[in-house]
Amino acid sequence: MSHEQEVSKTETLPANLCWALLREASVGRLAVWMEDHPDIFPINYVVDHSTIIFRTAPGTKLTGAIGSAPVAFEVDGVDERNGTAWSVVAKGAADVLSSTEDVLESFSLKLFPLEPGHKDAFVRIIPTSVTGRRFSVANPGQWWTAQTDSSHSAQE
Fold first, then answer.
1. InterPro entries annotated for this entry (predicted)?
2. Full-model pTM
3. What is the largest CA-CA distance in the chain?
4. CATH-assigned architecture of domain 9-155
């Protein structure tokens, strides 16, 4: 089989590895449903007892996160040492931390907003599913063909 015909093998990651990758990263994307369309936001977060916690201010992100629809949260990365990429997706419900105990515990999580402003709402995502995959990053020579080369030339 020539390198042009090689097929990437996608590895499904076990839940414990998904959680380990979630713990290593600090920025991901929160997907929410807003009335008649999806919306997505970059957020920094921490993992706390198999849940995901982030801080936000009142607004679209908070409204979408705590609405009636579940949320999705995605984190990904590339391991350049071994030429692989990975993605972890958590899906579930989100709630604002409101009990005194939860709020007090949240302040010990070392979760500081990346953007200035008052981000006083701590939100917990309680995943009902956490899935992940890892795959080899393709060498550009494997996907760059004469056909794609000519289509790029025609656009210039």
1. Pyridox_Oxase-rel (IPR024747), Split_barrel_FMN-bd (IPR012349)
2. 0.79
3. 63
4. Roll (2.30)
